Amino acid sequence: MACAGTVATSQPLSDDVLSNELVGEPVRITTAAPKATRRVIVRASAPKPPDNSVEGELTARVTARWIPDDPAQTTTPWLRVIVSEEEVGSGWDGSTVLEAGRPVTLEVFGRIPRGCELNTGCEWPMNVGFELQPDAVPGTVELEWTAQATARVVDTSDVPKGFTVSVSAP
Q1: Higher pLDDT, 85 or 19
Q2: Which of 19, 33, 137, 168 ranks highest by number of CB atoms within 10 Å?
Q3: Which residues contact 90 (CB under 8 A, 6 or more apart)?
């Protein structure tokens, strides 16, 4: 019975539409300046948009290289990546341990908030944040990153004709 009630009350969703992959400018953070944030804009549009809302996710893929100032250093600091709505500040995060000489790849997903009506033009400013363990031994992290969005239309099982999703740097 509970399962039938769930199915009956769930909203239909269109298939997911994938955006372009934005290749961000490389980022360097250090133990002296352990944080950096990059802003991206996610947009969804359609030539003849219906009166439906849009929801989705933003995925950041990060490759990190840890370079300790002292090459003999074997300490392994952590790196945290945060994907968040710009206005909210808090978001979804993932972390990994860094090892000198070994690139590490991390993927973090953040939710694009529901509520934007497609017929009004949907645009979401999002942040991709990078944070090195603050008390780590001196060193640098070189970061290469990409961002890609997936979006869908709520209350319809059909993708509107010409529906597109894009990610760009401001």
Answers
A1: 19
A2: 19
A3: 84
